[in-house]
Amino acid sequence: xxxxxxxxxxxxxxxxxxxxxxxxxxxxxxxxxxxxxxxxxxxxxxxxxxxxxxxxxxxxxxxxxxxxxxxxxxxxxxxxxxxxxxxxxxxxxxxxxxxxxxxxxxxxxxxxxxxxxxxxxxxxxxxxxxxxxxxxxxxxxxxxxxxxxxxxxxxxxxxxxxxxxxxxxxxxxxxxxxxxxxxxxxxxxxxxxxxxxxxxxxxxxxxxxxxxxxxxxxxxxxxxxxxxxxxxxxxxxxxxxxxxxxxxxxxxxxxxxxxxxxxxxxxxxxxxxxxxxxxxxxxxxxxxxxxxxxxxxxxxxxxxxxxxxxxxxxxxxxxxxxxxxxx
Length: 327
Known about the structure:
- By secondary structure, the chain is of the alpha+beta class.
- The chain has two domains: 2-214, Transposase Inhibitor Protein From Tn5, Chain A, domain 1; 280-325.
- It is built from ten helices and 13 strands.
- It has helices spanning 56-71, 79-83, 96-104, 116-123, 178-184, 197-207, 213-223, 234-258, 270-277, 304-314; strands at residues 2-9, 18-19, 29-38, 43-51, 86-89, 108-112, 130-131, 138-141, 154-161, 167-174, 282-286, 292-298, 321-325.
- The protein is globular and about 75 Å long.
- The model has no long low-confidence stretch (mean pLDDT 91).
């Protein structure tokens, strides 16, 4: 599961609106939304609403607790399920307290060190830097011993040249063993020397976060217009947020159901799903019990033939007639 935050700007009179960080909008007021996404499935596990000042350091633990209730893994007997779950975060979730909370709950942790000065100090213990063949950066294992975490962790320093010629440095923290991380990232290590495979696997796995939670947040804003709707009352905004989660997940499930027989939409993001696939003209017929009995799709639509095949396959056992026609 990937965790991240995004700003929801709104008017100053709306509940819990306060000044905070909103990308490219100085002195703006609004609220913050915290996401926890099951990246492998593209599904939103939980989404929480906070005031405008709250960022991931304060929001991460409430997000995890909410996700546990959603997934029904919050009890002691669910430890085995939590052990097979990785929580991946950026530096906002990389403080000692946050990492230890996640490790104590039996999750795996994979994320960045919170403190930049501390990361710089840790990077000085690297004995051998390895060039990343796919990027202009170097990586190396931190060799300093640590007893500040409740479970063993591996730490990987990453450095790259900045425009001023100095090194930009960060440190990754992971509870995954080298064998486990190589198993997860096996497909991404085909052109990597075996001697540095484990080291680079840690870095590549963190890089995939950008294509996970950050992409899903962007798709919500583009495909669902999430950033364009605001409610004055906080609980009304919360309900709107839940409806957005429902819409997001239904679209993801629909894409998964239809993809085997509609290969064109397999790679569609939410924007194209809403705009190109599910804005098709058509007719829906109901019976006296308000049950759908027939759907006619506009045959002139570029995706009509594929969706016609897909819907017939999906609703084969529902006594539902689907056809193409002139609308």
